[in-house]
Amino acid sequence: MRRSRNLVAAIAVSAPLLSGACGAYSQPTSPTPTPTPVPPGDAPTANVYILPGAVDLGPLAFGDHPLVIYKGERMRWRNADSIAHDLVADTPALPEFSTTGSLAPGSERTFTMTTLGSTTFHCTEHPQMTGTLIVQER
What we know:
The protein is α/β, with parallel strands linked by helices. The chain has a domain at 42-136: Immunoglobulin-like, CATH 2.60.40.420. It is 20% helix and 33% strand. It contains two helices and eight strands, in the order αβαβββββββ. It has helices spanning 2-24, 54-57; strands at residues 45-50, 67-70, 74-79, 85-89, 99-103, 108-112, 117-123, 130-136. It has a five-stranded mixed β-sheet with strand order 2-8-7-4-5, with no helix packed on it. It is globular, with a radius of gyration of 29 Å. The termini are far apart.
């Protein structure tokens, strides 16, 4: 019994010391890093594709989700299909992208997206091929 009283006394004396030590310790904080602007030639590139068999895919010709590009990125359209396509924006909401012009199989066009917003688009040669392009902040 005497031994357990000594152990209780030791814990009672130690507890305030430990809690005081823990309360005095503070986690060092580091400043939030500021993003460094990316020079235009070094902007990340987002690759978007006209999928093989796109004419038969209709609204899935560009994938099953809207195309999301971040402001400042280059958007590179690549025609992975076996026939030519010409993609045109349905609205002027994203002035950097109005049309790809004719994209032969395997060819590509690049646009740097600097305007936030969205637009639907379609292929002028195959109007059933439709999609949505969204430019947002990272």
